[in-house]
Amino acid sequence: MGLPVLNFRLMLLLAFILSQFATLALGAIGPVATVHIMNQNISPDGFSRSAVLAGATPSTLSFPGPVIVGNKGSTFLLDVVDALTDATMLRTTSIHWHGFFQPGSAWADGPAGVTQCPIAPGHSFLYNFQAKNQAGTFWYHSHHLSQYCDGLRGAMVVYDPADPHRSLYDIDNESTIITLADWYHVPAPSAGLVPTPDATLINGKGRYAGGPTAALAVISVARNSRYRFRLVSISCDPHFVFSIDGHTMTIIEVDGINVQPLNVDSIEIFAGQRYSFVLNTNRPVANYWVRANPNVGTTGFVGGINSAILRYVGAPNADPVSTQTNTNPMLETNLHPLTNPAAPGLPTATGVDVDINLDILFDFASLKFNVNGVTFNEPSVPVLLQILTGTPPASLLPAGSIYALPPNKNIQISMPGGSTGSPHPIHLHGHAFSVVRSAGSSTYNYANPVQRDVVSLGGAGDNVTIRFRTDNAGPWIMHCHIDWHLVLGLTVVFAEDTPTVATSDPPSEESSKASALTLR
Asked: Alpha-carbon distance 481 to 139, whole Å?
């Protein structure tokens, strides 16, 4: 190995180490931490309301919650303590670690009614899982009815010291995370079936139409540097068109999967999705609008709504005067994995072992969604516990919503678009999947389709089709990530390799308590 190459690798390693120190200095926690869930009044858009918040301590609750970080291969030990008291919102809770595959630890996945019972107030639950062969941008949120709409949501990052894209950027730490959230002034349990958001929050700050001129988030950058921004939609409902005036974004990661670099000037991002993009700060020193235009609620940017500020060091402390001139939007079909790009199965329409079609309809009589004619009703006994106690796949509850999948097979799921409430962002737990047909396209790509864990089903005429391999035993929920639709039954569960699940050995309550005590 030549000296220049060695020096370059040492510089990359040093830069990575320094970025981690920067992250810690900014207040990130993990991979071992206690996460306190409590109520507190906040006013992120100038309107004060009680919320469900997370914090590393009872005195550091925040929205979004604290960033949780680790490295590729890290074991996360996250002791979630429920101290909720506000009866206008749910007081029980559970947390899903979105994007983590949970091999061998399905019990730690988080969805109430599927892998666990909710955590009761005054109690705690220790989530113990490994980021096995995973790195990238993730997030966490309550997976208990519509609770995360009341505030329990935050970003997670798993860093890779050997990131294949490492030479493309200089800075990657907590300050380069951008969260997009919808915000509601009425608590979720009393907000109605599908309430309209009152505001968009970027990094926890925003304004609402007719409201005060609340402070906007400011993203500070130095000129002539390359920033890896991690864009995370922690939305309950809207999707956003995201852009930064005057700047091109080079996408390098989608939902925790590295992709071939793709230059765009806007990104349509749906609830639960994540993108890493490199931004070269080579524009004149100034302030530039950061825009996240939602598809529902108050749209546009009048008065600074749906906005944040990208501020170059040396620019005045003032609102931008920049304008939006987007001409190169991201298309999902232009995203291709960096490695192992082929979809599972043979490159034909029938080249799979199991082929399932899921028809989504809204029943206006019951005001519920159904999938293939069945509304998901959360069972009183979690699906995982049913499997562990010997319930055969055909008898798993809720009846009609459980699809048993055999191990080590190639699965294809097709989902026609256009149902009420479209476009539906569909999330599968336990896997990333290959999107062989995307919304807005009639082409099937088996060679190098994007791999991700949330996909938009699009509108009428679309037939989004995904593939994955059953190499991860567990009861994995697949649901609409518009949280209001989840509550209304737009959900199925794939019971994957139930014989292996039935012989698994989740930790006992006693061992979990003993481990949790060492964290406090």
From this structure: 13
Give CA–CA dist 286/92, Å, rounded: 46
Alpha carbon distance, N-terminus to C-terminus of the chain: 47
d(CA 18, CA 12): 10
Q: Does the N-terminal peptide bond of residue 398 adopt cis geometry, omega within 30 degrees of 0?
A: yes
In the predicted model, is pLDDT for residue 3 greater than 50? no
The encoded tokens of residue 69 equal 């970080």
Coil/strand/helix, residue 354: strand
What CA–CA distance (Å, rounded) separates 256 from 155?
A: 13
DSSP symbols for 122-183:
T-EEEEEEE-TT--EEEEEEE-STTGGGGT-EEEEEEE-TT-TTGGG-SB-SGGGEEEEEEE
**At 369, is the secondary structure helix, strand, or coil?**
strand
Q: How far apart are CA 357 and CA 379, in angstroms?
A: 24
DSSP 225-266: -EEEEEEEE--SS--EEEEETT--EEEEEETTEEEEEEEESB
Distance CA 229, CA 121 (A): 36
Structure token digits, residue 262: 């793709």
Pair 61, 53: CB distance under 8 Å = yes
Give the number of other CB atoms < 10 A from CB of residue 483.
Answer: 26
Report phi then psi at 62, rounded to 5: -155, 160
pLDDT in tens, 303-323: 999 999 999 999 999 999 999
With CA atoms as reference, report the closest residue to 415 among 444, 398, 437.
Answer: 437
- Pair of tokens at residue 258: 């590295």
Give the separation between CA 95 and CA 107, rounded to whole angstroms: 12
Rounded Cα distance between 323 and 319, Å, is: 12
With 0-12 CB in 10 A as exposed, 13-18 as middle and 19+ as buried, what is 520? exposed
Selection from 76, 78, 87 nearest residue 55 by Cα: 78
> Per-residue pLDDT tens for 229-249?
999 999 999 999 999 999 999
Structure tokens at 500: 């292996």
- Residue that has been written with the tokens 């010997």 in this structure: 390
Q: How far apart are alpha carbons 26 and 20 in whole angstroms? A: 10
**pTM, rounded to two decimals:** 0.94
Cα–Cα nearest to 454, from 330, 276, 272, 268: 272
